[in-house]
Each structure stands twice: as structure tokens, then as C-alpha cells.
């Protein structure tokens, strides 16, 4: 029996890759640079499955070029690069990887909070620049117990961050599009966005990127924050107006920022944000642990195999929008 053809963009960890190769004929793009559009279009022309990463834009044009496509999956929880409505229109289920990355991402977010408030990476720079030996003083950090943490975007990862902040004695408030019914269980109180901006000592952003959240943090929002505030983004870079953030850090409107995501990504070496001393940036590594990435790869392959076999997928974003398969418009 012929194996179904699957196009794989990017790397996939073993043993998931091996499993995929056992059941499917896999064509993989694993180069540093993004796949050129003409090659992508050529490859998807006869593909039945497609695994993408966020360097690929999945839109109607791509779907029109892929008449045999039965399923798409991505090794991430965020899918702002994918036009879900178009996938649903073409009756193609799209799978992502929620759940399995919650703890790793919450740990990274909380690490950025601790590193920022205790100025850990500055300490490391201080040592490497020989300042210790020269007797220069290192600036003091701040405590987090008793301080207010504002979480913007209260999904599973937000709840896991709230749990950690509670354990560290923080007062946790959150803002979300919809208020959660289990405020008490997650140990966080719902507040308006305005209140959160004004009252938080630290803000952690975890909201997905959408039309509503693009540029959510701009000049006006930074102006409302405390001058001692620490701003942390672990969602998507475009939720923040980068120029406004640079200015807020330069002028002292806020004290500090830590970002796991940036706009653009990656940052050019001469980007002004890299010249600031009151910022810490990590290269989009929220879910990057061996265990988590292995589980994400496994879930992605399970999603693809289920979609190819017309079985329900473990994590499908548009399951409710797809009724009859393979009836393409
Ligand atoms: O950014 C990472 C993800 O969306 O999983």
C-alpha cells in the first residue's frame, strides 16, 4: 500500500519523526532559511498531510494549491500564521499542541520574572566585564513577595503562572477577554486592563496574537504603568509595539523588560533594543525543553495520522467547523 505523502517544514524530534516516517512518505524542509514560496507550492501540490512552523503562512492561496490535502498540523500552541477560516472552508482540520507545553512555558515566564527582578543576567555581564574585580557596585534587585503580578491572557499557561506566583507570595490579578469562572481556584482576581496596567509591579503577557491583540501594548499603555514596573512578554512579539517599548525603557516610563518573543523575530544585530541595559531577551524558547518538545512532536504526528485516517484528532482547533471531509469548495 502506498504511504500518504506528508510535507514537513522544519525539524521534528524523535521518536515522533521516526513514527511519521514509518507511516508516511515524508518530504522535509529542514534548512535554516524559510522554504521559498515556489518550492512550498510545488511540494504541497500532491501532499495529503502538511506539518508547518510559524515561518509558513497557511492561507487560501496555499490551500488552493493543495487539492489532496487532508490535514495540517503545527508544533506549537499558537497559530497566528494560519488562516483557520480558510482551513475550515476547505474542510481541512488544523492541529496544534496545547496542554503539553503549559509547565515549560510557565516556568520560562516565571524565570524571566525572577531573572529581571533579581537582575541575574546583569550580574553575569558584571562578572564577564571584570566589573567585580574593579570594585564597581551592582544595582539592587527587588523582592516579589507582596507585589502585584498582572497576567494578560489567562489560559492554561496563565493559570500555571498564577499558581507559581501564589507560591512566591505574590498578589495575582489578570485580564482576559472573558472572565474565568474559577478565579479562586487559580488564585487570581479579574481586573480591567486599565487597572492592571496601573497597579501591577510586574506584567506577564500570555495572550494569543489576533487582530484584537496586535499592538495591544503601545505608548499609552506603557505610560500608564508604574515607573518601577517590569514588563514580560512570552506570547507573540507583535502584541507589543517594539518602538514604544524601547522608548518606555529609555525614558524610565517602566523599569525593565524581559522578552521571549520579539517583533521582528529574529532581531537584527543593530536593533536599538539590543543597546539597552534594562532588558533581557531570550530567543522564543518558551516550550524548549527536551521533554516538552518531544511531547509536542508526538502530539503533532498523532494529529497528522488521525487526520489522514479521518479519525478525530487529539488537538484540533477547527473540529467543530468541519463536518464532511474532502468536499473541497
Ligand atoms: O510559541 C510557541 C507556541 O505557540 O507554542
UniProtKB/TrEMBL annotation:
Keyword Oxidoreductase: yes
D-isomer specific 2-hydroxyacid dehydrogenase catalytic domain sequence ranges: 7-318
UniProt keyword annotation of Oxidoreductase present: yes
Molecular-function annotations in GO: glyoxylate reductase (NADPH) activity; hydroxypyruvate reductase [NAD(P)H] activity; NAD binding
SUPFAM superfamilies xref list: Formate/glycerate dehydrogenase catalytic domain-like, NAD(P)-binding Rossmann-fold domains
GO cellular component terms listed in the entry, alphabetical order: cytosol
PROSITE patterns (UniProt xref): D_2_HYDROXYACID_DH_1 (PS00065), D_2_HYDROXYACID_DH_3 (PS00671)
Pfam families: 2-Hacid_dh, 2-Hacid_dh_C
InterPro entries: D-isomer_2-hydroxyacid_DH, D-isomer_2_OHA_DH_cat_dom, D-isomer_DH_CS, D-isomer_DH_CS1, D-isomer_DH_NAD-bd, NAD(P)-bd_dom_sf
Family annotation (Gene3D superfamilies): NAD(P)-binding Rossmann-like Domain (3.40.50.720)
Keywords associated with the record: Oxidoreductase
Domain annotation D-isomer specific 2-hydroxyacid dehydrogenase NAD-binding: ranges: 111-286
Family: Belongs to the D-isomer specific 2-hydroxyacid dehydrogenase family.
Official protein name in the record: Glyoxylate reductase
Source organism per UniProt: Pelosinus propionicus DSM 13327
Amino acid at each position: 500500500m502506498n504511504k500518504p505523502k506528508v510535507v514537513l517544514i522544519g525539524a521534528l524530534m524523535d521518536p515522533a519523526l521516526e513514527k511519521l516516517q514509518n507511516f508516511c512518505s515524508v518530504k522535509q524542509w529542514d534548512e535554516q532559511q524559510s522554504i521559498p514560496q515556489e518550492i512550498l507550492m510545488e511540494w504541497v501540490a500532491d501532499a495529503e498531510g502538511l506539518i508547518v512552523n510559524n515561518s509558513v503562512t497557511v492561507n487560501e492561496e496555499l490551500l488552493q494549491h493543495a487539492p489532496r490535502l487532508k490535514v495540517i498540523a503545527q508544533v506549537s500552541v499558537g497559530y497566528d500564521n494560519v488562516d483557520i477560516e480558510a482551513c475550515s472552508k476547505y474542510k481541512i482540520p488544523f492541529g496544534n499542541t496545547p496542554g503539553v507545553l503549559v509547565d515549560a512555558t510557565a516556568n520560562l515566564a516565571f524565570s524571566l520574572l525572577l531573572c529581571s527582578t533579581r537582575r541575574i543576567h546583569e550580574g553575569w555581564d558584571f562578572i564577564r566585564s571584570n566589573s567585580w574585580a574593579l570594585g564597581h557596585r551592582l544595582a539592587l534587585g527587588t523582592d516579589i513577595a507582596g507585589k502585584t503580578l498582572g497576567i494578560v491572557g489567562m489560559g492554561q499557561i496563565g493559570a500555571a503562572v498564577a499558581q507559581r506566583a501564589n507560591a512566591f507570595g505574590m498578589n495575582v490579578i489578570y485580564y482576559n477577554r472573558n472572565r474565568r469562572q474559577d478565579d479562586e481556584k487559580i488564585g487570581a482576581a479579574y481586573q480591567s486592563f486599565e487597572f492592571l496596567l496601573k497597579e501591577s509591579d510586574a506584567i506577564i503577557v500570555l495572550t494569543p496574537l489576533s487582530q484584537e491583540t496586535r499592538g495591544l501594548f503601545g505608548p499609552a499603555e506603557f505610560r500608564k504603568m508604574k515607573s518601577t514596573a517590569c514588563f514580560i512578554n512570552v506570547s507573540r512579539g507583535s502584541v507589543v509595539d517594539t518602538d514604544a517599548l524601547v522608548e518606555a525603557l529609555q525614558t524610565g516610563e517602566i523599569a525593565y523588560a524581559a522578552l521571549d518573543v520579539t517583533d521582528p523575530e529574529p532581531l537584527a544585530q543593530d536593533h536599538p533594543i539590543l543597546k539597552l541595559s534594562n532588558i533581557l531577551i531570550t530567543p522564543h524558547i518558551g516550550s524548549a525543553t527536551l521533554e516538552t518538545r518531544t511531547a509536542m512532536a508526538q502530539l503533532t504526528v498523532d494529529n497528522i495520522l488521525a487526520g489522514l485516517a479521518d479519525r478525530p484528532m487529539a488537538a484540533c482547533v477547527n473540529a467543530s467547523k468541519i463536518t464532511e471531509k474532502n468536499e473541497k469548495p
